[in-house]
Amino acid sequence: MKYSTLFTSLIAFFLMSGMATAEVSDENENIEQYAEKLDKLSFLPGLLPVIIENSNVIGLTDEQLDTLLAWRSSNSDLLIETSNNIARKRVEIKQAAISPNVSSARLIQMQNEIFRLERAMLEHKLSCRELVINTFNRKNWDGFFLVLADKDTGIALPEFYVTQK
Question: Which of 18, 35, 61, 95 could form a disulfide with 87 if both were Cys (CB 3.0 to 4.6 A apart)?
């Protein structure tokens, strides 16, 4: 009887810990999917991967490419972490919104935290934009616009470029 109770307790423990792991795994997967959706809805496009992938067409020198790769290397973890935090906070606020125990003031605080994180993401992307602007020359811009015209990015080419051709 003593071993039966111990055995039952151990099985219950393992089953419960397995469920907790599954819930954490499911939650992380949901947050990652949500983060991907957020990236597609971002105010600024994430074009650095496109630029790096098409560096030959754009005509980047080794030095220019190294500059962009260095920025990506030093900022990618922070961008991913911020994006995941935004996604996590959005899930939290949705869950909190349906709880009668959460006040409107708390929901406003939660939304303000999301706004702060989104602002941080915007500032990171703007620093990348500035780097690209300061790194590209006229030839690079021509190549970049050719790449964008060839891809279905949903971004219209600047009017000055279209009228110039």
Answer: 35
Cα–Cα distance measured from residue 133 to residue 127, given in angstroms and rounded to the nearest whole number: 10
Residue 20 is which amino acid?
A: A
- The tens place of each residue's pLDDT in the chain, 165 residues long, gives 444 443 344 344 444 444 444 444 565 565 556 555 555 555 567 889 999 999 999 999 999 999 999 999 999 999 999 999 999 999 999 999 999 999 999 999 999 999 999 999 999 999 999 999 999 999 999 999 888 888 766 666 666 554 555
Q: Which two tokens stand for residue 165?
A: 């051709």
Interatomic CA distance for residues 50 and 53, integer angstroms = 5
Q: Whole-angstrom Cα distance, residue 1 to residue 124?
A: 62
**Domains of the chain by residue range:** 59-142
- Give 108-153 as a DSSP string: HHHHHHHHHHHHHHHHHHHHHHHHHHHH--HHHHHHHHHHHHHTT-
- CB neighbour list of residue 159: distance below 8 Å, 6 or more residues apart: none
Please state, in angstroms and rounded to a whole number, the distance separating the CA atoms of residues 86 and 8: 41
